Amino acid sequence: MEQQVAYTPDAIRSQVFENPKARPRDLADKLGIAEGALVAAHIGHGSVAVEAHPDKLMPAICALGEVMALTRNISAVHEKIGTYANYHAGDHAAMVLADAIDLRIFPKHWQHAYAVNKLGPDGQTRHSLQIFDAAGDAVHKVILRDTSDLDAWHKLVAELAVPHASSTPGLSPRSAVEAPKADESKTDILRREWAKLSDTHQFMRLTAKLKMNRLGAYRIVGAPFAQALVPTALNDALEALSESGTPVMIFVGNRGCIQIHSGPIDRLMPMGPWQNVMDPDFNLHLRADHIAELWLVEKPAKRGPATSLEAFDAEGRLILQCFGLRKESGPDHSTAFAAMAKTLSTNNNLEATRQ
Q1: Three-point CA angle 86, 88, 89, nearest 5°
Q2: Omega of the bond prior to 224 within 30 degrees of 0, cis?
């Protein structure tokens, strides 16, 4: 939500004090401000502005030891416990390729960052690093744990602090969500070029060349490349994966960061509209009621077809993607995932339910 009410930093802090149990994102939405504005209002009161570029942040984050990495969008929150390592810089895209924490980073969207110290309900201070885009939407967070290196944390704050940072940062209006783009006159070209893909990363270049986007292409390409499923089938898939233990890759992202879980999922704990994966080192919080479209997608690749389930909200935002786990070395679980997905499509094909 774009800022509609001009709250002073003092007023924002008062609202936080009066709503101690409110999640920052929820409270910011209630106030009509960006979450980044809420955090910035606490500069000098628990927050310190720090350098936001990942090239500056990542070496310091890698020194923190075990932490929780959190990436979210409006409909899904992805949390992984582990250690940051193996950072690869890049002007357009950067990566963290640690054993547990696997990120794709888009540096131009890392615009504001804050080291936050907040007193928890148990009286203990919680430390976190929170990064926001130009509109003040969170792109990534790093939450310290009891085992994290506090000396490294204090060093990060001291060395990367931005002097005289404003508690009322200039934030840009939030960019509009890109609607699905398709050109039915190019359907034959799309199908022909899709069949020639040898790597999933080639797909976005293909859609850009044809002046389409992901969801627009899915809507017109047809089987066997993309099949619409009933939205509730994603929950069926999570239950099947939990029961079978099939390792998967679950991608959740936003404009600035994509976070990936690689491994099985086990403990599902639905609560109201949320479906939750609550495993020791991985949590997923999914607003299942936000899923407006679910697609079973198959893209050719050198090692065999890459099958995915991809969920979108009513405005066309990508909520998450789920693939069978396939690594350069080690077992290939994509075949087991594809078999599960085929069974799922037989019972949940959207076109069949409409007939």
Answers
A1: 145
A2: yes
Whole-angstrom CA distances from 317 to 78, 176, 253, 314, 349 are 16, 11, 10, 7, 21
Q: Distance between CA 241 and CA 86 in Å, rounded?
A: 29
Distance CA 171, CA 226 (A): 38
% residues pLDDT > 70 (the chain) = 96
Q: Contact, 159 vs 59, CB < 8 A?
A: no
For residue 347, the model assigns a pLDDT of 77
Residue 161 identity (one-letter amino acid): A
Residue labelled with tokens 């089938």: 233
Of residues 57 and 201, more confidence is placed in 57
156: phi then psi, degrees, rounded to nearest 5: -55, -50
Residues 182, 220 contacting (CB under 8 angstroms): yes
CB contact at 8 A, 309 and 319: no
Distance between CA 209 and CA 226 in Å, rounded? 19
Residue 5 pLDDT > 60: no
pLDDT in the model for residue 155: 98
DSSP summary character for residue 281: S
| % helix, strand, coil for the chain, step of 5 | 30, 30, 40
Radius of gyration of the chain (CA): 21
